[in-house]
Specification:
The protein contains four helices and 14 strands. With 213 residues, it is an alpha/beta fold. It has two domains: 131 residues, 3-Layer(aba) Sandwich (Rossmann fold); 74 residues, Thiamin pyrophosphokinase, catalytic domain (Rossmann fold). The strands form two sheets. It has a ten-stranded mixed sheet with strand order 4-3-2-1-5-6-7-14-9-12. It has a four-stranded antiparallel sheet with strand order 8-13-10-11, with no helix packed on it. Strand 10 and strand 11 form a beta hairpin. It starts with a strand and ends with a strand. InterPro entries: Thi_PPkinase, Thiamin_PyroPKinase_B1-bd, TPK, TPK_B1-bd_sf, TPK_catalytic, TPK_catalytic_sf.
């Protein structure tokens, strides 16, 4: 099973392309609930404060969703609530997050910064942020074989913390055992002709981005 979290960014329903399989779980966050309905995917849970929906749209979501959960307070973001509920439903499965940029830089920063919160550390290995042009994942210390997505051209590595022992092989611009004392964005790399590459590091947190040209 995969958990799909659809946020309420200004993506059109016809552009919402979930990698959905029967038995997956779909969570719509605020306006994302309406997007799920319009795109014709099942909606297991609609959640948030729904302040972006009209009364008519909210009625449509209520009639379509299997369940609706209203956020009880403003102490946490809608996305944090979605992650909490995703963990309740599944302790091991991948979590795909759609519309993560929201058309605003602050939305993207808010969403990507959840990996700094201790309560979501266990979700880091299975969290993916997806939009039509980008796939974002997060890596904790270790060694990873990363496969090239056929429709993506560029590969970037964002050291979100100080990083020790960063090595990249199978890419156009390889690295060997590099240390970075501050966060560093290593962007616009490419796969070196193969279908996969190897990333490894001993300490820190790294964001990996595959992007279309």
């Amino acid at each position: 099973m995969t958990v799909h979290i659809v946020l309420g960014a200004p993506l059109k329903a016809q552009d919402l392309d979930l990698d959905y399989q029967e038995g997956d779980l779909v969570l719509g966050v605020d306006g994302g609930s309406l997007l799920v309905k319009q795109a014709g995917y099942p909606l297991d849970l609609a959640l948030g404060d729904f302040d972006s929906l009209t009364q008519q749209e909210l009625k449509e979501v209520d009639a379509y969703a299997n369940q609706r959960y209203v956020k009880p307070d403003q102490d946490h973001t809608d996305f944090e609530l979605a992650l909490d509920l995703a963990r309740d439903y599944s302790r091991d499965d991948l979590i795909y997050v759609y519309n993560f940029q929201g058309g605003r830089v602050d939305h993207f920063i808010s969403i990507s910064y959840v990996v700094y919160l201790d309560q979501y550390e266990d979700l880091i290995p299975r969290l993916y942020l997806l939009d039509p042009a980008n796939t974002v994942s997060f890596c904790q210390p270790g060694t990873y074989q990363i496969k090239k997505e056929p429709d993506k051209d560029y590969l970037s590595f964002i050291a979100m913390t100080p990083v020790s022992g960063l090595s990249l092989s199978g890419v156009k611009y390889p690295l060997e055992d590099e240390d970075y004392a501050v966060p560093r964005a290593l962007i616009s790399n490419e796969f070196a002709g193969g279908e996969d590459m190897v990333l490894s590091f001993r300490k820190g947190l790294v964001m990996v981005v595959q992007s279309k040209g």
